[in-house]
């Protein structure tokens, strides 16, 4: 059985920086990576043998 795990880290600085992160910060990062992440998933799915 083959498996693939993939994730996007949207709160990487949590616990690293002194400033607290807000939900808005996480949403902002997710919006920034949305297109790249969608393209990555699209290409992975295209390459799958079904």
Automatic annotation (TrEMBL):
| Catalytic activity, EC | 2.4.2.1
The top EC class, named as a word, is transferase
Cite the entry's keywords alphabetically: Glycosyltransferase, Transferase
Q: Does the keyword field hold Glycosyltransferase?
A: yes
Cite a single GO MF annotation: purine-nucleoside phosphorylase activity
Q: Name one Pfam family in it.
A: PNP_UDP_1
In this chain the Nucleoside phosphorylase domain maps to 1-46
Q: Which GO terms describe its biological process?
A: nucleoside metabolic process
- This chain's protein is named Purine nucleoside phosphorylase
